[in-house]
Design goal:
Layout lengths: L2 H23 L11 H22 L10 H20 L4 E5 L2 E5 L1 H31 L5 H15 L5 H15 L6 H16 L1 H11 L21
Antiparallel strand pairs: 1-2
Length: 231
């Protein structure tokens, strides 16, 4: 393999690892996570294997004695890619600050970027998510939907992990037990919980699919008097 291609390959490995970490964090809208600080997080993951590949080449690592040139190059690529990812996520020692242990080392830099991306995405998505869930859940009855809607959403998704389903069940149980909250507020929070797990499009599809089974009963309009008001 030519040298430019190899550098592209190790950079691509770093990008895939960085993107996959952010995508698993934001299942409802993963694309938003790779913008702003998220892009810097991915960039750091992309550059580190390229730098490691260069340095290991300069210092003649790994040892290629007794193996073919192609095997040596694959060895070199794997060492620089996996090794750099492990280095970025390592800490030299822990420092006690107050009641918390703070990791000192490359991992702290990577975690700081990750946390910054985390907050940036949350801020950007907060307004959109609020508007979307209010619009989707505006006529939904929490009493009717608390069991049916989560079950339907989970049935629509084929690859939800059992851990995600258990955590959702616990959150809904806590919400059901909350007494100092209106039905409409509970319905909106239920929508946000489900949106976090299955995304906005699936939630909208589920609510539309269940229709009147989970919506509030329409109020009966007042009857108009048929008598002559002057009589």
């Amino acid at each position: 393999m030519s040298t430019p291609f190899v550098y592209l390959l190790v950079v691509a490995i770093g990008i895939v690892i960085g993107v996959s970490e952010l995508f698993t964090r934001y299942k409802d809208e993963p694309i938003a996570s790779i913008q702003g600080p998220g892009f810097l997080y991915i960039l750091l993951n992309a550059l580190s294997p390229a730098i490691a590949y260069y340095l290991t080449g300069v210092y003649k690592m790994p040892d290629t004695t007794g193996i073919s040139a192609s095997a040596a190059q694959v060895n070199h690529i794997l060492l620089s890619s996996i090794g750099s990812m492990a280095f970025l996520r390592s800490s030299l020692f822990n420092l006690r600050v107050g009641t918390q242990d703070v990791s000192i080392g490359p991992a702290s830099i990577l975690q700081a970027l990750f946390d910054t991306a985390d907050r940036a995405v949350d801020r950007e998505r907060a307004g959109k998510r609020s508007s979307a869930v209010q619009e989707i859940m505006k006529n939904v009855s929490f009493t009717k939907a608390q069991a049916t809607l989560p079950t339907y959403c989970q049935a629509l998704m084929q690859n939800l992990s059992s851990d995600d389903q258990i955590q959702l069940g616990r959150q809904i149980s806590t919400l059901i037990g909350t007494t100092n909250m209106s039905e409409s507020a509970k319905a909106a929070i239920l929508g946000l919980m489900l949106m976090n797990l299955v995304g906005e499009d699936v939630l909208r599809t589920a609510v539309n699919g269940l229709g009147s089974e989970i919506t509030n009963d329409p109020q009966t309009p007042p009857k108009l008097s048929t008598q002559n008001p002057t009589s």
